[in-house]
What does this fold into?
Amino acid sequence: MNKLLSRLCLLTVLITAPPGMAWAQEDTQWYEVEVLIFRQWQAGGAEDAELTPADPPPPYFERIAALADAGAEPGTPFRLLPPQRLTLQGAWQRLAESGPYEPLVHLGWEQPAYEEAGAVAVALPTGWMPPVMNEPLAGEARGGGSAEPASGQAVAEQDPAPMLEIRRSAYLHQAPNFHGLLRVHVGRLIHLRTDLRLAQPGPGGELTAEVMRQHASMRSGELHYLDHPRLGLLVRFTPMESAPGASAEAASVGTAESLDGPIEEETLPPGN
It folds into this structure.
């Protein structure tokens, strides 16, 4: 993981929408995305040292969107799903009642199937946006990503934040304990990139953060689990029958199944 410095500036982030973001065409495939993110209470070891950098970068991507309210106009990208359309309440309850896990975020949203070049990252939790990042210093370049994973697999991602001039971790004092970015794009498979942080006091009392930066490819309609020594993520992509607002049936989805009952044993992490 590259160790870069940053200068941070707390400004309102204005996002320039990529082509088709504001109003997708009716023939564009839309998905319901549902995520459940939780903390794993596991003892750390030397092999986990790089997951807690002393000076972590903030999550970063060129295009970032805030989740829109569930009451927003149909067809608004990243519109939150109302609670009754979420399917992982049973998994949340099981994690909340277990000792090794602490559920952090459970929500869902609608979005069109962006290609990689037009992908937009979603900021979590609702109401948080990352600080504005400056351009790389002379002679420095952004870190590269990882090779494309096979379906159902997740691989670590390198630090994409630019080289900046002062400590990056200063932003942690003004951010929620859990925060980050999730980015989805669609090709032959659905690709999810995570850039998540879990802030916590370091050995010397300074504020540090666990970093979960992964790239996973997966198929729609299936529940997927991304593992990490400190964080876990359950995600499902459900294709919508039509674009929201395109017809009276726009809100209906295909291949959805309820998980209010017991979740598959192989999907939840060990210990449940």
